[in-house]
């Protein structure tokens, strides 16, 4: 057990269960320069933990680790810090290794039942379901889910693994982050135990590897992965991978690996639309046993567009504060609690950022966004940028007009309407819009 879990165990014995659950369990620990770093989902949790529990955490740390160095930060665990699975170098290719030896990393919480389906993830969900129901079949092997951060790729991957396991409890499903594959390989190399490493990975029925963009530039890891991949593919074992973008766009991934990835099925997971976001909020709240009015769910869905992880973070902040203060969750309460969070989001989006992102996307210059020239190649992107500003920020039409070279507010209104209408019929336009929303919300 690591030091943080030792501390947590002690805190669990000392504090009310609800406090531990709300404030301490969500913390993730890592080590940096000999100190413990605790990552909290948001600033509110950081402040609360600092005020109430940090002193005691320091004492426990001194007791268990012989030092008191601990810092609190907003964020999540650097992926490399997640412990790599132990690869038993002496593992023999026994006929049927116990499934438990492989399934440890699979988080059983994430299922298809608690995944909210929407237009943005429908295909990905269907593909993951197919891979789970008919593992190893050519049409979806490998299955690659790609898209921006926090959009549910890992959730779907777990859901597929869990379904395979529940349909057939003996199934050996191994889930690993790419860094864990890398660490396990480095360890095997140091211990001259590569044979055991290879055997270990090849004994699974399904191998799930998360965030393969991490393999970029790591030639030896790619080489080993390539061999593992081939062996599994030939053995009709299911491979499911995720990547933060389409693998062909990842610099530093070997061409032969890229081409292997294209053998099966690659599906993009897009950012969820407004309705799906609202549905996710309601579903996550219900999971936590919290009743949240629909208008609050709509408010969160409207304001938190960047990714589902942030949306969930906002919901957690809200419910934690409601618990803490004993107040009901109303829209006023939500506005108040989330003010800073929302301000930070909007600030990071900002009009110049939108103008620059849209200009870059269409290969234009920033000055084209402000100029009076009305050629179509400039006017459409400019209209798109104005409509995005209306969608993503709280600026009024006159403010937007001013920021786009002193245009009248009716021009902005016209741009918003025009873009909406065009998106109904023009698939390319809709795709551009969604890509830009994604870029701006990252
Ligand atoms: N459609 C959805 N329904 C329910 N929960 C969702 C949905 N999409 C995302 N989530 C939740 O959002 C959180 C982040 O999702 P997940 O970790 O799967 O993202 P990811 O795409 O793998 O991100 P990353 O690339 O950063 O690893 C999880 O708690 C997940 O349950």
TrEMBL record:
The keyword Heme is assigned to this record: no
Chromosomal replication initiator DnaA C-terminal domain segment(s): 350-419
GO cellular component labels: cytoplasm; plasma membrane
Chain positions covered by the region annotation Domain IV, binds dsDNA: 323-442
Residues that, per the record, bind ATP: 150, 152-154
Principal location listed in the UniProt entry: cytoplasm
Domain of life: Bacteria
Keyword annotations of the record: ATP-binding, Cytoplasm, DNA replication, DNA-binding, Lipid-binding, Nucleotide-binding
Its biological purpose: Plays an essential role in the initiation and regulation of chromosomal replication. ATP-DnaA binds to the origin of replication (oriC) to initiate formation of the DNA replication initiation complex once per cell cycle. Binds the DnaA box (a 9 base pair repeat at the origin) and separates the double-stranded (ds)DNA. Forms a right-handed helical filament on oriC DNA; dsDNA binds to the exterior of the filament while single-stranded (ss)DNA is stabiized in the filament's interior.
PANTHER family associated with the record: CHROMOSOMAL REPLICATION INITIATOR PROTEIN DNAA (PTHR30050)
Protein name: Chromosomal replication initiator protein DnaA
Organism expressing this protein natively: Novilysobacter ciconiae
Gene: dnaA
């Amino acid at each position: 057990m690591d030091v943080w879990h030792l501390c947590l165990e002690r805190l669990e014995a000392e504090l009310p269960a609800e406090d531990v659950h709300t404030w301490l369990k969500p913390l993730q620990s890592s080590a940096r320069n000999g100190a413990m770093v605790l990552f909290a989902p948001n600033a509110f949790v950081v402040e609360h933990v600092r005020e109430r529990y940090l002193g005691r955490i320091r004492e426990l740390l001194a007791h268990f680790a012989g030092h008191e160095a601990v810092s609190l930060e907003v964020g999540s665990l650097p992926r490399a810090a997640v412990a790599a699975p132990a690869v038993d170098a002496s593992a023999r290719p026994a006929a049927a290794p116990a499934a438990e030896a492989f399934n440890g990393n699979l988080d059983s919480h994430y299922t298809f039942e608690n995944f909210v389906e929407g237009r943005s993830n429908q295909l990905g969900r269907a593909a993951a379901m197919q891979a789970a129901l008919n593992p190893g079949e050519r049409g979806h092997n490998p299955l690659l889910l790609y898209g921006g951060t926090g959009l549910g790729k890992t959730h779907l991957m777990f859901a597929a693994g869990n379904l395979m396991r529940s349909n057939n409890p003996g199934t050996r499903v191994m889930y690993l982050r790419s860094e864990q594959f890398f660490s396990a390989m480095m360890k095997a190399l140091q211990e001259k135990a590569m044979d055991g490493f290879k055997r270990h990975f090849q004994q699974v029925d399904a191998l799930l590897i998360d965030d393969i963009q991490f393999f970029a530039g790591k030639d030896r890891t790619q080489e080993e992965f390539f061999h593992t991949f081939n062996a599994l593919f030939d053995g009709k074992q299911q491979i499911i991978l995720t990547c933060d973008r389409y693998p062909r766009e990842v610099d530093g991934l070997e061409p032969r690996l890229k081409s292997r990835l294209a053998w099966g099925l690659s599906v993009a997971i897009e950012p969820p639309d407004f309705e799906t976001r609202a549905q996710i909020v309601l579903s996550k709240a219900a999971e936590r046993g919290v009743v949240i009015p629909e208008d609050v769910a709509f408010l969160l869905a409207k304001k938190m567009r960047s990714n589902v992880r942030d949306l969930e973070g906002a919901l957690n902040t809200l419910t934690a504060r409601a618990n803490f203060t004993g107040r009901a969750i109303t829209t006023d309460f939500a506005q108040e609690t989330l003010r800073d969070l929302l301000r930070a989001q909007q600030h990071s989006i900002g009009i110049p950022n939108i103008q620059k992102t849209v200009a870059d996307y269409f290969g234009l210059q920033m000055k084209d966004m402000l100029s009076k020239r009305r050629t179509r190649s400039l006017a459409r992107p400019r209209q798109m940028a104005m409509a995005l500003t209306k969608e993503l920020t709280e600026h009024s039409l006159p403010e937007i007009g001013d920021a786009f070279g002193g245009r009248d507010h009716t021009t902005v209104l016209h741009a918003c309407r025009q873009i909406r209408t065009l998106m109904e019929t023009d698939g390319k336009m809709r795709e551009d819009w969604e890509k830009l929303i994604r870029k701006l919300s990252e």
